[in-house]
Amino acid sequence: MLAACSLFFLTIILGAASRAKPTVFIKKLKNKHYQLIVERKPYIVKGVCYSPIPIGGNHEYDWWSDTSKPWMIDGKMMQAMGVNTIRLYQTHENTEEVKTVIRDLYQNFGIRTILGDWLGFWEYPCPFYGDKRFQDKVKASVLDMVKNYKDEPGVLFWILGNENNYSCLGAVNPWSSDEIDKEPDPQKQKAMKSEVYYSFINELSREIHKIDPNHPVAMGNGELIGLDAANKYCQDVDIVACIIYRGKTFGNLFRSLRMTFDKPILLAEFGADAYDAYLKKEDQNMQAFFLESQWRQIYENLANNKEGEGNCIGGTMFEWSDEWWKHAPDNPDSWKAQDTESNWTNGSYYFDIKAESNKNMNEEWFGLVALSQEQEFGMNKRIPRKAYYVVREFWKNPTLEVKKKVKK
Amino acid sequence: MKKLFLTMAALFFMMPVCASAEGQAPVVVEKPKEFVVYVDKNSRDNHYIPSGWMGDTGDIKMADQCAENPHGGATAIKFVYSAKRSQGQGWVGVFWQNPPNNWGNKKGGFDLTGMTKLTFWARGAKGGEVIQKFMVGGIKGMYPDSAEIELGPVELTDTWQQYTINLAGKDLSTISGGFSWTTTADLNPEGATFYLDDIKFEADPAMKPEGKKRESMPFYIYADRSTSKNHFIPSGYMGDYGDIKYEGSSKDNPYLGDTCIKINYSGKRVQGAGWAGIFWQNPANNWGNVDAGYDLSKATKVTFWARGEKGGERIEEFKVGGLMGEFSDSDNATIGPVILNKDWTQYTIDLKGKDMSYIFGGFCWSANSDNNPEGATFYLDEIKYE
Questions:
Q1: Nearest C-alpha of chain B: how many angstroms from A31?
Q2: What is d(CA A319, CA B102) in angstroms, rounded to the nearest whole number?
Q3: Measured between CB atoms, which of B328, B331, B353 is closest to A249?
Q4: Interchain CB contact of A186 with B (< 8 Å)
Q5: What is the pLDDT along chain A (408 residues), one digit of tens a residue?
Q6: With CB atoms 3.0 to 4.6 Å apart as the test, which of A39, A176, A360, B238 could cross-link to A352 if both were Cys?
Q7: What angle do CA A16, A22, A28 make, to 5 degrees?
Q8: What residues in B contact A247, CB-CB < 8 Å?
Q9: DSSP result, B235-290
Q10: Are A244 and A222 in contact (CB under 8 A)?
């Protein structure tokens, strides 16, 4: 009898344990809206993309082992602003250093970390997503990341890739396979690549879920391109993490996503630069104007807002601090100066679209904080831009109505 | 005497009081019922000056005291448009401005609050002349007009017809560009001679504000060279724009009607971009700086016919929508890459599930020199939203 009772209660306990909610998960509400739940509470991602490269360094700079611990200074400033999440594009080979960063930010400032993997996107000569060996290599890297950090309380979720879907169009880092090359119709080639790519992402998601039921898996995606294919082949991802540069409005992004690939969306990269390429001078008002407008739209589309689609879970702005190497990555001399040249054009950022050749996007000026040559705490002094304060105030009091007083 | 004096004095002091009282009484000022732009040459009622010539200004001749069969009075305004593309623009227009030549760089204009429509009379010399649009307001610059309202395209007849631009509900508090017309060489390949008369604003209480018009289908981008059915202007040259030759009235085996579009892309990389393309925009050269999207919500697809001169020409993308600026297209849809056949082939861009409620980037193609090292000559016809 006692044994039977014990078995009965054990079954209940084990059953309850097996039904325990994950630490972080996506909840679909009755009204079909989506919420990110973290430790049983709704969580709005108020985040920044984080890459604290100092003046003079480039993307290869090992900031993880920087003894001045830039994330501690940044974390304090982020906390004061209201940031609750950072996004890291890729982890580092030294797992202890990565854990230190995650723990320092979480334990000291309550800031959680989204960890990502490039999925071999920048490998030379190109990412062969159709090649089994390449897939296995990428898969090993991703699963290592998950295994290494899944038990870190500061981890929020995983992002697979960034804008890797553009490679299926042949626009960036083009790749192919023998089978695809045999197809004469380029439209069908594109569809075949999308099937290969999104099927691979789906497989990765399933593998991650097996070893880590506690964190959702997001898929990085440039714009909404290719998501019709994702809808067919990639249903196991939990979140779409979109990279969107559409100026003051995201337009019909949220509705369009709902109709093509009904998943919650994280605005994983968005923002505005703070340099007017037409007037050739810094313009903090311009950046603040765009960012406030973008956050307003994000909030309009959070769950339980009748006016929006209810499928947005927040965003990670690009980016926390300026990076002075980005305009000319191959020229170390230029990393010591903040370049005012522009690499690309985007009419959505219309204030300076009349710049020469319409090149108005200044890669080295996207920071919420500018970097100074002056050293403070053993690193480049951080100088908050106007956007830092404007977004801070918006988060404190998120008013969705557009202010009558035009700032710019 | 004393009594009379007192009475006179009282009257004297009362007079201003009476006058003052009379001044305080409600004064009924009759609001003007019309405001004339042009009725006759030298009429004292005329306002605004047709000083703002645009585009191929060398293609325009104007006679503002033309006595050839005016609609009213003794004169009308005659325009002769040669369509010779004197300045290489392919389009022309004239703004009636106040003060003359005011492109928004000076304070000026009139407060036309209360006016609800602009009416004018127009006729073509032969009939069939196409005016892309007539417009009220629309001056930009430091001192912009408070409104921009357009009508068109309009295909004129050889007899006088009255046209109306509905201004009800519009903010007419500052209008420096009282009236304007624009048209293109594509719409009038042989040029156009036309007449305007009796242009005036009117306060007609019966006019009601127009709601946003949902365009009916089919909605043509290109049907034939000179038809008022066409919408959007192929003005948005992109990338190696020097590599592109556009001919909107090719008679080289059109799919339907008299003409088709012929595009020659040399692939020479004149601007060093390695690619090129054209966006059809509304109005011309609108990259998102003008609030002028059509509501094409009724459309479920865009269809068009295309062929390559040799066959095998590769177009990277055909696209609708997707222009972004201060104003942005509400959605976009693409097909491509497309390898063209030598014979006419119909292509479809699916719009199901798309938000086409605001589109000023009506159609676009782009190609690159990597895939067309020898360039590409191709033809388009019957481009329409359905």
A1: 20
A2: 44
A3: B328
A4: yes
A5: 445 555 555 555 455 445 578 899 999 999 999 999 999 999 999 999 999 999 999 999 999 999 999 999 999 999 999 999 999 999 999 999 999 999 999 999 999 999 999 999 988 778 899 999 999 999 999 999 999 999 999 999 999 999 999 999 887 899 999 999 999 999 999 999 999 999 999 999 999 999 999 999 999 999 999 999 999 999 999 999 999 999 999 989 999 999 999 999 999 999 999 999 999 999 999 999 999 999 999 999 999 998 899 999 999 999 999 999 999 999 999 999 999 999 899 999 999 998 998 999 999 999 999 999 999 999 999 999 999 999 999 999 998 876 544 344
A6: A360
A7: 105
A8: 324-325, 328
A9: EEEEESGGGEEEEEEE-SS-SSSS-EEEEEE----TTS-SEEEEEEESSTT-SSSS
A10: no
CA dihedral A240, A246, A247, A253 (to 10 degrees): -60
Locate the chain A residue with the closest alpha carbon to B287: A347
- Identify the pLDDT of residue A6: 56
Task: Specify the DSSP class assigned to residue B352.
Answer: T
Residue identified by tokens 């004197």 is: B86
The interface predicted TM-score of the complex, written ipTM, equals 0.78
Identify the pLDDT of residue A148. 98
B306 to chain A nearest CA, in Å? 16
Residue of A nearest to B357 (CA): A252
Does A256 sit within 8 Å of B325, measured CB to CB? no
* Chain B residue closest in CA terms to A184: B339
Token pair belonging to A227: 């998501």
> What structural domains and CATH numbers belong to chain B?
34-202 (2.60.120.430), 219-385 (2.60.120.430)
The answer to whether the CB atoms of B355 and A252 lie below 8 A apart is yes
Kindly identify which residue of chain B lies nearest to residue A171, measuring between CA atoms: B316
pLDDT of residue A3: 52
| Residue A247 sits at the chain B interface (C-beta within 8 Å) | yes
**Is A44-396 a domain of CATH 3.20.20.80?**
yes
> If we measure between CA atoms, which residue out of B166, B163, B158, B151 comes closest to residue B195?
B158
At B1 the pLDDT is 38
Q: Which of B287, B336, B353 sits opposite A187 (nearest CB)?
A: B336
Residue B220, H or E segment: strand B219-222
CB of A187 within 8 Å of any CB in chain B? yes
Domain regions of chain A by residue span:
44-396
Cβ within 8 Å of residue A219, ≥6 positions away:
A159, A160, A161, A201, A205, A230, A234, A237, A239, A240, A241
Q: What are phi and psi of A191, to 5 degrees?
A: -65, -40
Residue B153 CA to residue B151 CA, distance in Å, equals: 7
A171 to chain B, any CB pair closer than 8 A? The answer is no
Question: Is the CB of residue B266 less than 8 Å from the CB of residue B375?
Answer: yes
Residue of B nearest to A228 (CA): B353
Selecting from A185, A249, A252 the residue whose C-beta is nearest the C-beta of B331 gives A252
Residue-level pLDDT, tens digit, chain B, 386 residues? 334 333 333 333 333 333 333 334 445 556 788 999 999 998 999 999 999 999 999 999 999 999 999 999 999 999 999 999 999 888 999 999 999 999 999 888 999 999 999 999 999 999 999 999 999 999 988 899 999 998 888 999 999 999 999 999 899 999 999 999 999 998 898 999 999 999 999 999 888 887 777 899 999 999 998 788 899 999 999 999 999 999 999 999 999 999 999 999 999 999 999 999 999 999 899 999 888 899 999 999 999 999 999 999 999 999 999 999 889 999 999 999 999 999 999 999 999 888 999 999 999 999 999 999 999 999 999 999 99
Would you call A187 and B355 a contact, using CB atoms and an 8 Å cutoff? no
Measured at the alpha carbon of residue B75, what is the angle toward residues B71 and B81, in degrees to the nearest 5? 85
List the structure tokens of B325: 């600026």
Cβ contact (<8 Å) for A350 and B328?
no
